Amino acid sequence: MVKPKVAICWLGSCGGCDEAVVDINEVLLRLADAVDIILWPVAMDFKYDSVRRMKNGEIALSVVNGHVRNSEQEEIAKLLREKSQLILAFGACACLGGTPGLANLSTKANIFNWVYRDAPTVVNPNGNYPQTTSRVNGKELTLPEFYDHVHALNDIIDVDYYLPGCPPPPYSVMYAVSAVLENKLPPKGSTLAPNRALCDSCRRNKSKPDRISIKEIKRIHEVEADPDVCFLAQGIICLGPATRDGCGEACMNINIPCRACFGPVEGVEDSGAKFIPALASILDAESDEDVTRIVNQFVDPVGYLYRFSLPVAIFQKKRAEK
Ligand code: SF4
Ligand code: SF4
Fold first, then answer.
1. Where, residue-wise, is CATH 3.40.50.700 in the chain?
2. CATH numeric code, 5-99+148-181
3. Could you read off the pLDDT of 275-303 as tens digits, one per residue?
4. 13 alpha carbon, closest ligand
5. What is the whole-number distance in angstroms between the Cα of residue 261 and the centre of ligand 1?
6. Which atom of ligand 1 lies at the shortest distance from residue 91's CA?
7. Considering the entire predicted model, what is its pTM?
8. What is the pLDDT of residues 83-133, one digit of tens each?
9. Pairing of strands 139-142, 133-136
10. Candidate of 196, 200, 202 to mutate for ligand 2, largest count of ligand atoms within 8 Å of Cβ
């Protein structure tokens, strides 16, 4: 029997998403029996040239993690799109841009100036910056081009399915792969996670009062949060009301509030923007000054609300200086 060909590939990635695949433990052996893994750079020595030689559509499924920030990542993403019947964007970086997407608050020039000139540990007397081509001992060396911004995968190629999370939990990896192998997939474009807010399944939900009202915003490291009580009711920012369920509450279980690595539920374009009116509605303030005082306690709102999703948010990025 000819087994379906599967590629597992990283672009701009920390490796955590590949680790999540390994975390399915012995199921990985069953998976390796059921499919022919033809590319998995983090685990095995495959060559991109072997993929280039394949027919278009020859790969049944490519599971792609990581964001796109350079020309090599774009080239690999486009190669996999051409050779694959289905592309699964795997993890918050591929689906939403991920934590590296916070670099969109800066510009390429600022990043290069800091990394190659201004950081106190840098010694670069000739002011060398990375070049896409350079000659060394008569030979030409090339580097991928570093792009102005971080992109989510669907900014670069057409994506069939999404599995968010940083990284996606092992059971959702198994669910996604079996859905593909058993041909039980939802409509194209679907996110393979429940279409409801995390609050709906959160075990702390029953501790929520009918109407939450908070007089101050506290940071998680400044208080001893009650592990059984809704974070918001304790005045600690938790993005559960604006975030898709399906993560398995790994953060909640160690008493850390939700930071939205699963992105928004269907129909919500921007989970950070969605959370702002929810937060405004629970502030217990008697005057404008009171509102300002409480809001100022929300440290780094962009970093908190868009920790995983800035490249797909409505405002997305800082424009490069002219
Ligand atoms: S989604 Fe998280 S675990 Fe996966 S590559 Fe990005 S940062 Fe790493
Ligand atoms: S706000 Fe957070 S802690 Fe409260 S119910 Fe929703 S997910 Fe749970």
1. 5-99+148-181
2. 3.40.50.700
3. 999 899 999 999 999 999 999 999 999 99
4. 1
5. 9
6. 1
7. 0.93
8. 999 999 999 999 999 999 999 999 999 999 999 999 999 999 999 999 999
9. antiparallel
10. 202
